[in-house]
Design goal:
It is a single chain. The protein is of the alpha/beta class. The radius of gyration is 20 Å and the shape is globular. The chain starts with a strand and ends with a helix.
């Protein structure tokens, strides 16, 4: 296996963008939903407005230039090409940090925090809070390779990320961070405790209360448990489909850009703190940047297969290395500190934020950056 790291320059052929425009223009739309809210899924008017922007106002080349400006690379790890961005801080002593996205996200989730984390002095921060960032695309996501055999589960991804950090020369002392699947990968790395991993931070800690924890619960704990129950009964249909029949789902997502867009767009509504206005919270261009990383790479099926591989292993095993947890109010899972401490036994930072949801770095970047800076000061 080659350990070489190759520069990767993104240059999507114009013919692909033209084909996308043709497909968008030929969309066969369903009828309007029978309700006046999102309870039957993404409303027709909202999706049509998003697609109109996609057709007439969206500029992919802007996003392409941003990603190329971050410094993109590809390296083969355990037989699979892994795509990643490597953004070095200009400040001496910056802490190397590998940050992992989730579904239906991508490295685009980090677009608002790359600057403040790598160059804090340009954003009102202190040089000693700087990070070197490594932003990999999960296997089957974005421009990483698509596994052709099963086995790319959380354990394997965690080991691949540790190898990547070693290969970049960061193996002596680094940290890891993630949300959604990124939190599961990061927690798995915490359990594995590879050489050089000093600490982890997650913004979705999946820890369920034990029977003893359900006695004398606080108001916040009762609300968190109610959220978990709502997710189990009404919020995880997408996950059941992706974990059981990702291939079947993939045919529709591969063939219809609007289908792929709506599959993702709904979650930017349901998992954010934006009310009924995800466009206002994230911006249509940013939402479409993220959708494009699925459409251009035809990764609807390959990204869903991670659910088939690992959905039952999402809850972390015991993590003993130093851990930070940030809890955002519209997150799917919102553990209390006492629930979290049973899994994360060396909890050095725990904070509940006043605003934000599942896509914290994307939705409330200032709060997210403050959390990472506070946690980072404890582990440098």
């Amino acid at each position: 296996m080659s350990t070489a790291i190759h520069a990767f320059t993104l240059a999507i052929d114009q013919s692909e963008l033209d084909t996308l425009q043709t497909r968008l223009a030929m969309t066969r739309w369903p009828e309007r939903e029978c309700v006046d809210d999102w309870t039957q899924g993404a409303p027709l008017a909202k999706v049509r407005a998003l697609v109109d922007h996609w057709q007439h106002h969206y500029d992919w080349r802007r996003c392409e230039a941003m990603l190329n400006g971050w410094g993109q690379h590809v390296t083969e790890v355990d037989g699979l090409d892994i795509h990643f961005c490597h953004i070095r801080s200009p400040h001496e002593g910056a802490l190397p940090l590998i940050m992992t996205h989730g579904w239906p996200g991508s490295i685009i989730e980090f677009c608002h925090v790359v600057g403040p984390l790598t160059n804090p002095t340009a954003f009102g921060g202190r040089a000693e809070d700087a990070f070197h960032l490594v932003l990999p695309s999960l296997p089957g996501y974005g421009f990483s390779g698509k596994p052709t055999h099963n086995g790319w589960n959380l354990d394997r991804i965690g080991r691949a990320w540790a190898e990547l950090m070693q290969r970049l020369g960061y193996g002596g002392h680094y940290a890891a961070q993630g949300g959604d699947w990124g939190s599961a990968v990061t927690a798995t790395m915490g359990t594995q405790a590879p050489t050089g991993l000093a600490a982890i931070h997650v913004n979705m800690a999946v820890t369920r209360p034990s029977p003893e924890d359900m006695v004398d619960m606080t108001v916040a704990e009762k609300a968190s448990l109610a959220s978990l129950q709502a997710y189990a009964t009404d919020g995880n249909g997408y996950a059941q489909q992706q974990k059981s029949r990702p291939q079947t789902l993939g045919y529709g997502l591969a063939d219809s850009p609007v289908g792929q867009a709506a599959w993702i767009y709904e979650k930017f509504h349901g998992w954010s703190d934006a009310g009924d206005d995800p466009d206002g919270a994230f911006g249509r261009d940013a939402i479409l940047d993220n959708i494009m990383l699925y459409w251009l790479t035809n990764s609807g099926a390959s990204s869903a297969r991670l659910y088939w591989e690992s959905f039952g292993q999402f809850s972390a095993s015991k993590v003993e290395i130093p851990t930070g947890i940030s809890v955002f109010p519209q997150e799917i899972f919102r553990p209390s500190r006492r629930w979290a401490e049973k899994v994360y036994t060396n909890l050095i930072h725990f904070n509940t934020l006043p605003k934000g949801g599942h896509f914290a770095a994307f939705e409330v970047p200032d709060l997210f950056v403050d959390e990472l800076r506070t946690w980072g000061r404890l582990v440098r």
